[in-house]
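Notes on consecutive records. When two proteins share a document, each keeps its own sequence and its own C-alpha cell line. Never mix them. Below: protein one.
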Amino acid sequence: MTTFEAMKYGPLGEAVEAAMPSSEADPIGVWAACLSMYSSAISRKVRLDNGRPVVVWTVLAGRSALGRKGYALGTAKGILHPVIGGYLEARIKDGISTGPALVNMLAKLELETMGSETGMDGRALVVEEEWAGLIKSQKACRRFSTLFRTAWDGKAISNETKKEGKVTVVQPLLGFHAHITPGEWAKYVSSSEALGGSYNRLLPVIVERSKILPYDHKPVFPDAKPLRDAFKWATQERRVISFDKAAGKRYDEIRAQVEERAAEMPEMISVYVERAAEQVHRIAAVLAVTEKKTKISRRAVEAAWAFVQKSMASVEQLVRDAAEQSTKPMKTTEDLVREILGRHGGEASSTILLRALGTRTNAAGLKEAVASMDDIEVYKLQQPGRGAKPIMYRLIEDAETKIPESSDSEQKIPLSTKPQLRVVIGQESKPRKKQRKDAAAVVPTPPVANPIMALL
C-alpha cells in the first residue's frame, strides 16, 4: 500500500505533514488538493520542457462524512492561504456543466486582464465539491468532454455562436479538483467516456478519515514562508522545468512500467492509466518548483510516482467495485420489504414502507407482494378518534405470534399460512357505538380478554 510518507516531498510535503496532527482528513487527500491548487496557481509562467502545462487534476473519492473530503480541501486551503490565498479567492470557479460555458469562462478571464500591468491572465481553478450533481449535465453536452480534455492538454479550445461569433482560448490554464463518493463514481463515470479519454486526465484517490479529534480543536498550520518564496520565484518570470540526467532515466523506466501494467489490465481499467507517465512528469515538475528549481531530481520523480501509483490502485478498485455492483442481481420487492422492516425493529406502517421503497412499487404492488409472504403479518391499528387507521406490517419468524399481554391472561393465536388483516385495539381505547357500513365492514368477535377483531 502506497503511503503519504512515500509521496511527500519538499516544502509542500513538510507543510502537509505539519498540518496533519490537527486535521481529521486523509493526508493523501490533503496532498491531492494541494497539488491541484498549487499547480494551477503557478501554471501561468511554468511549463514543461515539451511545452505542456503543469496543471494536476485530482479527485477525492470517499464515502460521505467518513471520507472527510471537504475536510481535506479545507486543510489544503489553510496550508496554502498565506501563499496563494488571493488567487484562490479570485479564480476558484464551480458549476461549469457545458463546453461553451467552459470556453466563455476562460475567455472572460483573459479579456478582463488584457492590457493589465502584469499581462493577460486566464488561469482558473474549477472546484466541484458535489461533482456527481454536474456529471449528468456535462454528459448531456456533446462538446464538454472534448473541450475539457483539450484544456488539460494545453491546446486551444473554442466555441462559436451566431450572436458572438467564434470565441477562442489559445492556451487554456485550467485547474480542476472534485469530490465524489464511490457509489456515485459507479453510477456516473461510465466506461464509454473513459475510452474516449475524458477521465484519464484525472487522478482519483480513495480517501478516508485519519482520526477523530475533539469537537473544539483548532487547526494549526505551519510557517508558509518556504512555499511563499517558491511561489514568488515561479511567478517572476517564465520557468521551463526539465529532468536532470538521473531523473530522466528513472522516468523512462516508469514509462515502460506503466505500459507493461496497462497491457496486463482489462481495457475498462487500463484506459484510466494511459497518461500515468505524464502525470508523474507534471507532479515532479510542481515539486521541483516548490524548491525553486528548474531541474527535476530523481527523488521528486519517485515521490510523484508514489502518488500516481496510489491513484492507479484507487481507479482499479473503483472500476472493479462498479462492475460488481452492475452485475449484482436486483433485489425483489419482497426482499426489500424484509430489509426495511428489519431496520424499523420488525414493524412499520404502509406509509413508511412505501416511502422507503420509493419508485420501486405503489400501494397495490406492496399489497400484492406481501400477499405471498408467509413471514409478514398485516393488520390495521385501531386508534382513538375517527381518522383512518394505519395499515401495519410486522415481520414474524415463527409459525405463531404472541398477543400483547392483558391484565387477565396470556394466549397465542396461531397464524394461517397466508397473512391476515386484523384490527388491534389498544387497552385504553373504547369500542365505538356505531359501525360504519362499507364494502369491507369490520365484524366484531365476541369479547375476549385481549380485544382483537378479525376482518372477514
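Protein two starts on the next line and is unrelated to protein one.
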Amino acid sequence: MRAPRSDGRPRGTARRWTARLALLVALGALALLLTAAGVDSLALLLVGFAGLAVTAAALWWTLSRHGLSRALAATLALLTPGAVLLAYATVGLLWAVLSALALWAVAALIGRAALAAEVQPPPPRGHRTPPPKAPFLIMNPRSGGGKVGKFDLVAKARARGAEVAVLDPARPRDVGELARQAVVEGADLLGVAGGDGTQALVAGVAAGRGLPFTVISAGTRNHFAMDLGLDRDDPSACLDSLTDGVELHVDLGLIGERVFVNTASFGVYAAVVQSPAYRDDKVHTIMRELPDLLTHHTGPRLTVRVGEAVIEAPQGVLISNNPYGLGDAAGLGRRPRLDSGALGVIGISVDNAAQAAGLLRGHQSRGLTVLTASEVVVDADAPEIPVGVDGEALLLPTPVVCRVMPGALRVRVPRERPGVPRTRPPVDWRALRRLAFSGGVASGAPGGPDSRE
C-alpha cells in the first residue's frame, strides 16, 4: 500500500472525488441562478460578461489615451462595475449573483486542489558536497532596504569562514570583475547578498569557472531565492549553505553574452524604465509614456521568433529562465522548476479595446502568446532596443538572441530550507471532467510543466 501524500494534495481515488465535488459545486452555482432568476439568469450572465468587457476596454483606453479621453475612460472603468451591481440589486437578484460567484470561487479552489498533483514537478535533487574552504561573498548594504545591516550578515558570514566584500554605494564597482579576482586568489565558492541583477552577474562568473554559487536573499523581491526554496524572511538562514548545504544544478538564461537568472523583458515596460524620470517619479512617468508606446507611435516595433512561431509587433515580451506559472496572478511570480532546460516566453499584443477585453479569456485570448523554447530571437526596426534584464535597464543591439544553458549553475543551498512555494494550476474544467469520470488528466494539461501554446 502506498503511503499517503505529505503535502496535502489528494491522491488517486480521492482526486477523482475531489474533481467530482468541484463540478458539483459549480453546477450548484448555476442551479442557484436558475432557481432564483429562471430564464432571466441568462440575461444576468450576459450583463455580467458585458460589464467585464466594458471595464477591460475602459482600462485600455485609460492607459492608451491622454487628457480628457483618459479621464473619461477611467471614470467609465470605475463606474461600470457599480452599475452592474446596481442593476442586479434593482431586480432583487444581487444576493443570488453574489452567492453564485462565491460558490463558483469555492468550486475553483476545489478544482485546483484536484488538478495540483498533475502539475507539481518533483523538487530538484540535492547533491551532498563538502563545505567550501574559501567562500567569497559580495554584499550590497543598500539592497532590500538595508537587509545586510539589519540581519548582521557581514559578521555572521565571517563567523562561518567567508571572506566578505561590502560594496560602497559611493564608489560603484564591477561586481563581475570583483568575483573574477576572488577566483584568481583562491575562492572556491562565490555568493551574493543583493538584488537579482547582481546575483546574475556573479552567477555568470561562477558558472564560467565551474564553481558553486550561493544566494543570500537580501534583495527586494528575491525571485531567484524564492524559486530556489530559500528563506526570504531571514536572509541569515541562507548562510547555512556554507556549513550544512547541498548542491542543485539549475539552468541559466543568456541574453547576448550576459547571464540572467530570472527574466529579460522587451517592449513597453523596458522602454519606460529607460526614462531618466522613471526612478524619481515612476507612476507619472509610466502614465506619460504609455499611450504612445502602447499604440506604436513611439518605440521600436518588435518581431519575436520562437522556433517556427513568430510574434509580430507585441507591446510586451517576457523571456524567462524556465517558464513561469500562469495559474493565477500570484503564480505569475513563480517558476515550478529551474532545471527544465527551456526558456519561457510570454507575449502580449493588444491594439484596441476589443483585444484588451479579449484578454479576459486568459490562455484562449488571441492577444496572449505562451511558448517555451531553447532559443528566442527578438528583432526590431531599430538598431538597438531597450531591455530590462533582471531589473537592470539596458540598451542592446538587434537582433537580440536569448538562449538557455541547461544545468549550467551549481547552486549551494541550505540542507534545511522552506522549499519552493507550490504553484497552483489554472482551473481547466475539461481536465476536471476527464479526471472526474475517466480518472486521468493528460500530461500536457494546461498549466503543467510540459504545456505548449
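For the record: The chain is about 40% helix and 20% strand.
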